[in-house]
Amino acid sequence: MKIAFLFAGQGAQKIGMGADLYRDFPRAREIYDSIDLDFDVKKLCFEGPAELLNDTAFAQSCIVATSLATANILKEAGIKPDYVAGLSLGEYSALAFAEAMTAGDACRIARRRGRIMADALPAGTSKMVAVMAMDEEKILEACQAVQAKGMCSVANYNAPGQIVITGENRAVDRAVELLKAEGLRRAIPLNVSGRFHSPLLENASCKLADVLSEYNICQPEIPVVYNVTGSESGMPVPQLLTQQIKSSVRFMQSVEYMLAQGVDTFIEIGPGNTLAGFVRRIDRNVTVSTAENTQSVQKILEVLK
Predict the structure, then answer these.
(1) Which domain holds residue 67?
(2) 179 and 245, same structural domain?
(3) 35 and 166: one domain?
(4) What's the angle, vertex CA 88, arms to CA 218 and CA 134, rounded to 5?
(5) Is residue 194 part of a domain?
(6) CA distance 280 to 261
(7) Which residue of 66, 94, 165, 231 is 20 to 30 Å from 244, comparing CA positions?
(8) What is the CATH number of the domain that holds 178?
């Protein structure tokens, strides 16, 4: 058996996440209690309010804290992954779990990354849309065809039949129109504040590079499969993270890479089950679990210990 931990990204946050883990597992309490930010992470995770928890500037550090609390319960019980990966923000959780940075530093970086991303997105000027059941080449052609109206590119390769495009409103809207003319039946606007993972975040990536330079970030102790490459990489971690904020997230390719390395068991770490759903669409023959609360964690422990 080869195991991969997949760490949740932004959008998975919900009020109450981690509360029962904090109550039931000393290791989770240790992780949460060690996080020292300019707001009460536990209170926001456990009690909300939703408006603040859903704010990019706050959500990112809350998800990292919850994910690391969850993963370390499994680690303490003897469940150790052969690979780790994360969707966008989840890559920070993966790297902290793999000891490339401390849990505290991961949450501090995520807090500052969230602020940078929030400030980089003028309200109402950009969007992200999930394009369902459409040929990848046609999506890329549509993005290229609308450049005269503004920037439009692929933000996420999530799973077969689900690619997210991002960019300026007029360009994204026109790309969707072109794809509908090619037979697209379903396009889902995402409830995010804008153009994440696009070249429009070039300035944000420079600011993030400055932030990352302040922290001690080393090569991970567990193999990490990166969003930018869809595979392992020998590049310095800060360089990969700086590129990630403005590049396509190759989650589908990352899962395919781990499958090729013999991974047959995937555990989604953190709130929600989005990544588990993506993995099932990529390969229905692998074992997929979610670890987000006491019940699901105990079930994994019973099966894998």
Answers:
(1) 3-120+199-304
(2) no
(3) no
(4) 140
(5) no
(6) 17
(7) 66
(8) 3.30.70.250
Same domain? 71 vs 219: yes
Say how many C-beta atoms besides its own lie within 10 A of residue 296's C-beta: 17
Stated pTM of the model: 0.96
Indicate the length of the chain as a whole number.
305
Of 138, 166, 189, which marks where a domain is finished? 189
Structure tokens at 61: 């550090």
- Parallel, antiparallel, or unpaired: how do β-strands 126-132 and 83-86 relate? unpaired
- pLDDT, tens digit, for every residue of 152-207? 999 999 999 999 999 999 999 999 999 999 999 999 998 776 678 999 899 999 99
31-51 mean pLDDT = 97
Mark whether 210 and 295 lie in a shared domain: yes
Mind telling me the catalytic residues? 88, 197
pLDDT in tens, 95-137: 999 999 999 999 999 999 999 998 887 778 889 999 999 999 9
In a domain, 261, yes or no: yes
In this structure, are 216 and 166 located in the same domain? Answer: no
- Measure the CA dihedral 236/241/244/249, to 10°: 90
Q: 110 and 76: one domain?
A: yes
**pLDDT tens digits, one per residue of 271-292:** 999 999 999 999 999 999 999 9
Is 70 within 8 Å of 294 (Cβ atoms)?
A: no
Q: Are 73 and 27 in contact (CB under 8 A)?
A: yes
Residue 53 CA to residue 47 CA, distance in Å, equals: 9
CB-based contacts of 52, cutoff 8 Å, min separation 6: 44, 58
Strand 265-269 relative to strand 3-7: parallel, antiparallel, unpaired? parallel
Any domain includes 138 = yes
Our count of domains for the chain comes to 2
Tens digit of pLDDT for each residue in 196-237?
A: 899 989 999 999 999 999 999 999 999 999 999 999 999 999
